[in-house]
Amino acid sequence: MTRYAYKASLIGAAQQFELTGPGLAWRFAGRTGLWPYSEIAAIRLSYRPVSMQAKRFRADIVNRDGRGLRIISTSWQTATLMAPQSEAYRAFIIALHERLAADGSTARLTAGLGRFTYGAALAAIALFALAMAGLLVRALVIAEWSGALFLIGFAALFAWYVGGFITRNKPRSYTFTDIPAVLLP
User: Fold this and answer.
1) Beta bridge partner(s), residue 19
2) Which one of 25, 142, 154, 161 has the largest count of C-beta atoms within 10 Å of its C-beta?
3) Distance of CA 107 to the CA centre of its chain
4) Are residues 70 and 151 in the same domain?
5) 3-state DSSP of the chain
6) Are residues 7 and 97 in the same domain?
7) pLDDT tens digits for the chain (185 residues)?
8) pTM of the entire predicted model
């Protein structure tokens, strides 16, 4: 049996998941359930950093009834500490895919953001880049060198942080044997 648990919030009990012979068992908020592997309709893997945890990954699992489960690779420890659970999360997600494949699952496997959300993010980044380029040209024309250096530094930091999010979350499909490595810790 493979198990995984995390605390989604500081208050409340941990969300617990277990891969059993008959299916995916879960327990949280006083509720329990068992989803047979054949009832799992879709899995979406994504990269979802937050301010206190830059290496945060998420798996959204949907069953045939449309109900969903969310599994996150970090767990709240204190009011200011979110601890990574990289190895345990990775092992659980890989084991879940192996169980689904062994069961002959037809689950839809997708990675990254939805296509509309991804397109909107790209459009917002393009607008931001255009505005930053305009400010940089203006700073150079009026010989405001410190402002130009600030804009260049800010653009580099933005590209590093947001660029990683965008490249990891490119919408795509995958197979049980080819899980996107960039979406696992």
Assistant:
1) 2, 24
2) 25
3) 19
4) no
5) CEEEEECCCCCCCCEEEEECCCEEEEEECCEEEEEEHHHEEEEEEEECCECCECCCEEEEEEECCCCEEEEECEEEEECCEEEECHHHHHHHHHHHHHHHHHCCCCCEEEECCCHHHHHHHHHHHHHHHHHHHHHHHHHHHCCCHHHHHHHHHHHHHHHHHHHHHHHHCCCEECCCCCCCHHHCC
6) yes
7) 799 998 877 777 789 999 999 999 999 878 899 999 999 999 999 998 876 667 889 999 999 999 999 999 988 776 667 788 889 999 999 999 999 999 999 999 999 999 999 999 999 999 999 999 999 999 999 999 999 999 999 999 888 888 888 999 999 999 999 999 999 99
8) 0.84
Beta-carbon neighbour count of residue 185 at 10 Å? 16
How many CB atoms are located within 10 Å of the residue 96 CB? 24
Within this chain, do residues 82 and 129 fall inside the same structural domain, yes or no? no
User: In which domain, by residue range, is 126 found?
Assistant: 115-164
Tell whether 90 and 176 lie within a shared domain. Answer: yes
